From TrEMBL:
This is Stage 0 sporulation protein A homolog. Residues 3-116 form the Response regulatory domain. The keyword Phosphoprotein applies. Keywords: Phosphoprotein. SMART domains: LytTR (SM00850), REC (SM00448). The modification 4-aspartylphosphate is found at D53. May play the central regulatory role in sporulation. It may be an element of the effector pathway responsible for the activation of sporulation genes in response to nutritional stress. Spo0A may act in concert with spo0H (a sigma factor) to control the expression of some genes that are critical to the sporulation process. Signal peptide: none annotated.
Length: 238
């Protein structure tokens, strides 16, 4: 269920926006309506998408969004307004989109298409590992690297380090298609979390430094370049 909020102090526009959303091709939507920023902020609901009027009585849309961003960094905020001079302020609160009144069905539906596309990419990709005595499920993006040491595999994540009993070659095979590469016989690293390469040192986002073997240098650098190119192209396509 996708949860959508509409916040506008003009009841006619509020209802019109709701009708357009209800006509969207995906029907599994839960829509909430609010007549001002105060009502929205007082709500205990969390949303996937918010259509937010900027020029409202009381607390305006920019200030409302700033307060929302304190507790929710992920919600897609799409501004709706009569004016075009709020763009800079909208970017300051990481607005996802911008619609000019009167709202056209085509434009709003395109915004929904884009927002749902990004939400799909933002979903956690979870993978299971057997650690010492338990099964753990980890978000791939939170894994920095695997290190083979003392006949064990250390899995370093943003939350903790796990011990896995396995072969580093098996880990490499398991993670290969998920954006992981083997720069050294004792390491498998997450390309998503590579910060930079200097000489034969790989600098990770957690400030770890992973050795890059001369033998694997060319292959690893090529894999990283392809990964980054695909990632940038995906962002450009939106």
């Amino acid at each position: 269920m996708i949860k959508i909020a509409i916040c506008d102090d003009d009841v006619i526009i509020l209802n019109h926006t709701k009708e357009i959303i209800e006509s969207y091709k995906i029907k599994d939507l839960q829509i909430y309506s609010y007549k001002n920023g105060e009502e929205l902020l007082e709500s205990e609901e969390t949303f996937d998408i918010i259509f937010l009027d900027i020029d409202m009585n009381g607390i305006n849309g920019i200030e409302t969004a700033k307060k929302i961003r304190i507790y929710d960094k992920k919600v897609k905020i799409i501004y709706v307004t009569n004016y075009t001079d709020y763009t800079y302020s909208a970017f300051s609160v990481h607005a996802f989109g911008y619609l000019i009144k009167p709202i056209k069905e085509k434009n709003l539906h395109e915004q929904l298409d884009e927002a749902l596309s990004y939400m799909k990419e933002d979903e956690e990709c979870l993978i299971d590992f057997i650690t010492e005595g338990e099964l753990v499920r980890v978000d791939i993006k939170k894994i920095y690297y695997f290190e083979y040491i003392s006949r064990k595999i250390l899995m370093k994540t943003s939350e903790k380090t796990y011990i896995i009993r396995d072969k580093i070659s098996a880990i490499s095979d398991k993670m290969k298609d998920l954006g992981f590469e083997m720069p050294h016989k004792s390491f498998v690293v997450n390309l998503y979390n590579v910060k930079s390469i200097k000489g034969y040192d790989i600098y990770m986002m957690d400030e770890s430094i992973i050795p890059l073997s001369q033998k694997k240098s060319s292959e690893f650098r090529n894999a990283l370049n392809i990964y980054l190119s695909n990632h940038i192209e995906k962002q450009i396509r939106g």
